[in-house]
Automatic annotation (TrEMBL):
Entry's localization field: Cell membrane
Keyword Membrane annotated: yes
Transmembrane segments: 12-33, 48-67, 101-124, 149-172
InterPro entries xref list: Pra-immunoreactive, RDD
Protein name per Swiss-Prot or TrEMBL: RDD domain-containing protein
Recorded superkingdom: Bacteria
The organism of origin for this protein: Candidatus Beckwithbacteria bacterium GW2011_GWB1_47_15
UniProt topology in membrane: Multi-pass membrane protein
GO cellular component: plasma membrane
Principal location listed in the UniProt entry: membrane
Record keyword Cell membrane present: yes
Amino acid sequence: MKPPVAGFIVRALAFLIDKSLFCLLALIGLWMAWSQAGGLAPAFGKNLFWWLFFVAFFFVPLWWLYLSLTSANLGTTLGKLAAGLRVVDAKGKNISFGLALFRYAVGYTVSWLVFGAGFLWIIIDPKNRSWHDQFTGTRVVGRPRPWRAVATLALLVFFEVFLFVSLVKSIVGNQDFIRQLIEIYQDSVKLIENA
C-alpha cells in the first residue's frame, strides 16, 4: 500500500521548519559578527557588511543545496522529517540529486511566481501536488505528524527570538558602541554639510 500524499498544512509546517533552520543560522552568523567586532562600531560595520553580502549572495544557493542533498540522500529534509514526510519519485523511490536540484532551484522559483500560487495549488489538486511536484514527477508522502512539526517549529522560533533579543540587548547595552555610532553619524553629517 502506498503511503498517503501529504496535504498543504503539514507541508507548509515542514517548509517553515526548514526556513527557520536557515534563519537560525543567519542569526548565529550575526551574533558572530557582533562578537568578533569587540564592541567597536567600525569593526561591526565591516562584519555586518560581509554578513549581509554572504546572506544576499550565498544563502539561496546554500538553501537549494541543503534541500537537494537531504532529499537525494535521506529522502527528506529536516523539516519534512519532523513532519513525517518524504519526497519520492513516481516509483516511490528517493529522488536523485539532479532532480532534487531542479525541483528546488527551478520548481520552487516557479511555484513562488504569481504570489505563491504553485504552492497553493496543493490545496486544489486532487493528488495534493504543487507545481514543482508536477514539473518533476515527484510526490510528498508519509504519515503526517503535524503536532511534532508544530513543536519543532515552536522550539526553533523560541531559539531565534531568544538569540535576537539577546543580540539587541547586547548592542543597546554597550554604551561605548552607542557613543561610537553617534560620533560616526555626527562626522558624516559634517562631511555632507561641508561638501
